[in-house]
Design brief:
By secondary structure, the protein is an alpha+beta fold. Strands 1-2-3-4-5 form a 5-stranded antiparallel sheet.
């Protein structure tokens, strides 16, 4: 079933998108990612003979996948064109659904290009006061400066 699912997914990927990424998860699910359209389709075995669970969802900024927005069960016995039609219907439902949080922005093609590099997000700190380690470093530096001054004055 896994080889047949991978072959079917490869054929569907060619019918759906010119640019795509195809990979298999540990569970046996085969995922087709269309990064340029910010959508994904997955095909997973359902336990029934020649039946597959087809799920569709969005790809969020940064490349992470959002949970599936729509799903259906289809038979692998039908032609690839019919399976592609089912996938397109699911993708259309995904596109018309409400946008996930933080996705109410303009499409990528309408956004201006960023010239700065992204920085990694740092966790927010609880308070801005100087911590214990900082105070110990400051005291050590002050101690070294005092020792240096003492040695200078003792030599005079």
């Amino acid at each position: 079933m896994s080889a047949q699912l991978r072959e079917t997914a490869g054929e569907l990927a060619e019918l759906l998108w010119r640019e795509h990424t195809l990979y298999r998860e540990r569970s046996g699910t085969v995922v087709i990612r269309g990064s340029h359209v910010e959508r994904w389709i997955s095909l997973s075995p359902t336990g029934g003979k020649d039946q597959v669970l087809i799920r569709a969802g969005r790809i969020l900024d940064g490349g992470t996948t959002a949970p599936a927005r729509s799903e259906t069960v289809a038979s692998l016995a039908v032609g690839r064109a019919e399976l592609a039609a089912v996938c397109r219907r699911l993708l259309a439902e995904t596109a018309t659904g409400p946008a996930p949080r933080g996705a109410a922005r303009a499409p990528k093609s309408a956004r201006p290009r960023k010239t700065r590099t992204r920085r990694t997000a740092r966790p927010a700190r609880g308070n801005r006061h100087t911590g214990l380690t900082s105070w110990l470093v400051i005291l050590a530096v002050l101690g070294l400066v005092a020792l240096y001054v003492r040695n200078l004055t003792a030599g005079l």
